[in-house]
Design goal:
The protein contains 11 helices and 17 strands. The chain is of the alpha/beta class. It folds into 2 domains: 175 residues, Medium-chain alcohol dehydrogenases, catalytic domain (Quinone Oxidoreductase, Chain A, domain 1), CATH 3.90.180.10; 136 residues, Rossmann fold (3-Layer(aba) Sandwich). Strands 3, 4, 5, 8, 9, 16 and 17 form a 7-stranded mixed sheet that branches. A 6-stranded parallel sheet has the order 12-11-10-13-14-15, with helices on both faces. Strands 1-2 form a two-stranded antiparallel sheet. Helix 6 links the parallel strand 11 and strand 12. Helix 4 packs across helix 5 and helix 4 crosses helix 10. The protein is globular and about 60 Å long. It binds zinc ion (2 copies). The site of one zinc ion has 8 residues, from helix 2.
Amino acid sequence: MKAVVIEKPGTVRLARVEKPVPEPGWALVKVKASAVCATDLELIEGSMDGISYPLIPGHEWSGVVEEVGSPEDSCWIGKRVVASNDIVCLTCHECRSGRWRYCQSFREIGFKANGAYAEYLKVPVYCLCELPDTISFVQGALVEPLCVGLGAIDKAGLKLGETVTIIGAGSIGLNILAAARAAGARRVIVAASSEKRLGFARKMGAYATLATAKGDLPELVKESHEGLSDVVFEATGIEECIKASFRLARKGGRVVLAGYGRNRDMEIHIDDIHINNLRVIGAAHNWNYINTALNLIKDGMVNTELLATHFMPPEDFQRAIEMTRSRPEGFVKAMFTFED
Ligand SMILES: [Zn+2]
Ligand SMILES: [Zn+2]
């Protein structure tokens, strides 16, 4: 099969590799759509710990089950699916407590196991979720980042009618926006360094958009949120933006850190948190919100399909990677599509 393989940090190529064979308890999925995530750039650069190469990346995908490793799973064959990427043992203390993500032998598809930049991938059957016929494969592939947004909202304990500011209009920021709107947040502001992506935020129902380069951010936020925001979501992982996030939350408010800090140490002005009694909440990963995401999409409460802005075959992987890196005007996500 065709696959985009990171041979070693810095070296990516389109290769012919063996089609995976599903062992008992696993399914072989024919990939229909597979999105490129900014996190994949970290894998390509080799800046993420504990990754072994060669690796086929790709953790935002949808497809159709073609084969299963155990006859009792044959009901899955032919089903349209999305899936959790969490390969876990199901027997350790964390798994038994329902916290798969903290499994002692946790591996994530697309990071520590081959992912979906390929015609096929193999997935544990316990990870599979059926994709309703009314949801496209493209929207299906965008369920994973939507789950990141839903998880951030849940961890924030967002209440109906609370005011929200989101810093960052990349995939995570825009997915938090979609989730916050569905969760009943009021006057959701999206702030980003450039105007480039704020148009997407407006299309997705942001109350106001702010280009952070222009003017005093807390003053601009106060124009919409009296006394600043109840909840601030930081979705960039950039030091400057994290510092700014603590100054946009109201006294006693919450700041949710939803951006990857790229393994860096940062300087934080602790008094912004201490004096204002802020609650700071870490929000990483897609935590099995797949059914919630599918139900919200199915019922028309969330639609993130517009985030897939560029479609291409895997042969064009260099262009997909380059666009993900340079974020040209009108670009949010590149999506690989595969022929039948
Ligand atoms: Zn991702
Ligand atoms: Zn476990």
